Amino acid sequence: MKTISVIRLFIIYMLAACTISCNSNVPSLEEPKDTAPHLNESDSLAMVNIYKKIGPWGYDWDLKDIQTWGGVDIALETSTNQYRIVGFNYYGSFSGEFPDDFRKLTELRVLGLGGGTLSGQIPSWIGELTNLIYLYIGFNQISGLIPPEIGKLTNLEQLTIGNNFVNGPLPEELGNLANLQKLVICDTKVSGSIPKSLAKLDKIKNIVFHNNQLSGEFPIEILKYGVF
């Protein structure tokens, strides 16, 4: 009886070992994770909407292939392993009003819109794009006031608004642009006096006010930085 029990235990052991061995050779059905970085979904949707609203422009875009998105710059956000849109700079055939989808591109460093027929006003939400270091709006049909919220762009180094129909006074909040190095307001209908708050811009190197409707006394305090 002992012999039979030993044989039985041996058979059970061999069957278990065979089962483990066979199972170890079965390929896993779990799909490998894709760790390659992708374009941030919100950025992608916003840029596609912008293209649909004011495009097409000079490049032939495939809306599913970021490599074809001429004028768009991306950078890898290592904390999320996602590409973010950090720049849109194009001089071409835009049309329509200033798309509010730009406000969703929260990592924008560069925004340049020139040479089109963009209409409407510079939106107040422009102040939400606090990472901007370069803002150019030129040779379009933008009208209305320059919004005071533009003063929230404290990382801005260069601001150009030209060859548009913007009007009214320059906002005092321009003096809040602590990192501004170049300010160009030209060929517009901007009127009134030059804000004295510009004297606070201690990093400013160049100010251009050309062909506007500015009037009043010139704030001599601005000259202490040797600009103009």
UniProtKB/TrEMBL annotation:
Source organism of the structure: Bacteroides muris
Where would you say this protein principally sits, based on its record?
A: other
Task: Return the Pfam families for the record.
Answer: LRR_14 (PF23598)
Put simply, this protein is called Disease resistance R13L4/SHOC-2-like LRR domain-containing protein
Q: Residue limits of the Disease resistance R13L4/SHOC-2-like LRR domain?
A: 96-212
State whether keyword RNA-binding applies: no
Secretion signal: which residues?
Answer: 1-24
Q: Which UniProt keywords apply?
A: Repeat, Signal
* Location relative to the cell: Cell envelope
Its cellular-component GO annotations read: cell envelope
